[in-house]
Amino acid sequence: VAGENFDQSPLRRTFKSKVLAHYPQNIEWNPFDQDAVNMLCMPKGLSFRTQADNRDPQLHSFIITREDGSRTYGFVLTFYEEVTSKQICTAMQTLYQMHNAEQYSSVCASSSCSMDSLASSIDEGDATSLAKLQRYNSYDISRDTLYVSKCICLITPLPFMQACKKFLIQLYKAVTSQQPPPLPLESYVHNILYEVPLPPPGRSLKFYGVYEPIICQRPGPNELPLSDYPLREVFELLGLENLVQVFTCVLLEMQILLYSQ
């Protein structure tokens, strides 16, 4: 388990994640930092869900800034896939049995009763709330389907957010689709890694994803730097007043700290 979150129910806990594979294995000018990428791809760690939970894919991005000031940009699609290991499902069931036993004991202790006389002595409200807790926040191996988080990530020298987002979504659809794409998945990964070049400054580049073409554009030397992030989202997240205040702080060269979950 990642962190001290044992008070949480097992499905609300986070677990230690790891990098399963990365390609290419090594680039001299941009060595792969496994710990940094792992932490930035899954900052909260590995998480589990059941069929009752929301499992919509989520996109986020990150920046790795090196000592010399050079930057590398990461774009991540996190999704949930079904757990096929019987061992992991059994372990989750065991964690829930232990958690429910602890909840049972704590409710009993708060009601100053023995384990044997819980049914007769416990306050009716406590019993109802405990029953609800176990019903809505539980896992039964015979009834529930267990899912675990997984992510695919593209690391690029320039922040081509829209192009990376479209490619990752298309790759995810290919992984989960009943109809496989025309070519093996490895072909699309090889294509974007080795056959799609960076567009020259001031030029656009069109390349083929898994299902649809993708276009990315690079500003010229005399243009503003590439900013592929939608401004509308900034206004929606921060609001107009906060955004004006942040912009004012930037112009005044003040230190700014943005805190978010």
TrEMBL record:
PROSITE patterns, sorted: DENN
Keywords of the record: Guanine-nucleotide releasing factor
GO function terms (MF aspect): guanyl-nucleotide exchange factor activity; small GTPase binding
A Pfam family: uDENN
Keyword Flavoprotein belongs to the record: no
Domain UDENN: 1-261
Protein name: DEN5B protein
